[in-house]
Model the fold of this input.
Amino acid sequence: MNRDVLNSYPHAKAQCVYHLQWCTKYRYNMLRKDKYKKMYEEILREIAKRHEMLILSLAIQPEHTHIVVSTRPCISQSKALQLLKGGSSYELFKRQPLFRKRYPKGHFWSPGKFARTVGNVDLETTIDYVEKQANQTMLSNFF
Done:
């Protein structure tokens, strides 16, 4: 997937890019050590590859994660969050069993999240394009 152009799929062209963010439960600094950050980054990249997502940008903080990810059109923001948050939680507990001492109920991430669609075209440009299309259609129907 290319980050600057529309991606081609069978019967479709699309650009589905999301900026996602989530936090550890209680904002504990679980990812402050480099070895945990590296392990977590590896996990996210594996999950993204498995689900045909492309990580365009990733920032791992001690208690939260920011990611910009490009997905196939059939993966919604909520589905991308579910795959990345749920999959990473499962793998973190599997690879680092000591995390269960902090989170005995198995909830590594807080239920909160942030999600926004991102594109290489801004809102004003898109609105202008759509309005011009409507005007062109009216003119072509008139003549």
